[in-house]
Amino acid sequence: MAKKAVKNKIKEPVKKTDDSKLFAFLAVLLTIIGFVIAYALKKDNEYVMYYGKQGLILFIASLIVWVFVETIVPFIGLVLSPILWVAWVILWVIGIIYSLSGEMKPIPVIGQFADKIKL
């Protein structure tokens, strides 16, 4: 019987090279462009794709904030938008730091959605 992964737990160490860390860093830093680069060049590297998927979710989150809060709900967006953008930047910086750490740590909130992406 297969064991299920525990939520918000650091995954097993994967052999990482500086090349893997660089591509993982780019995947988070550049969000959607980084994901495309990671998928095109390192789709067999578990470490890079782990952070690539999280970068993709960060991009989707930024679209949701931009489209929903700033265009659909403009008056509430004036109050919520700065708060949500600061939260997004904090998650983005955490992702960048984690990608350079050499460990597969899920970005808070974002990691649980990225784990559901099967590529």
Task: Describe the fold and architecture.
With 119 residues, the chain is mainly α. It has one domain. Helix content is 71%, strand content 0%. The protein contains five helices and no strands. Helix 1 (18-29) packs parallel to helix 3 (46-72), helix 1 (18-29) runs antiparallel to helix 4 and helix 2 (31-42) runs antiparallel to helix 3. It starts with 17 loop residues before the first helix and ends in a 5-residue tail after the last helix.
How is the secondary structure organized here?
Elements: H1 18-29, H2 31-42, H3 46-72, H4 74-101, H5 110-114
Helix pairs in contact: 1-2, 1-3, 1-4, 2-3, 3-4
Short summary:
Helices cover 71% and strands 0% of the residues. With 119 residues, the protein is an all-alpha fold. 31% of the residues are buried.
What features would you highlight for this structure?
mainly alpha, 119 residues, 0% strand
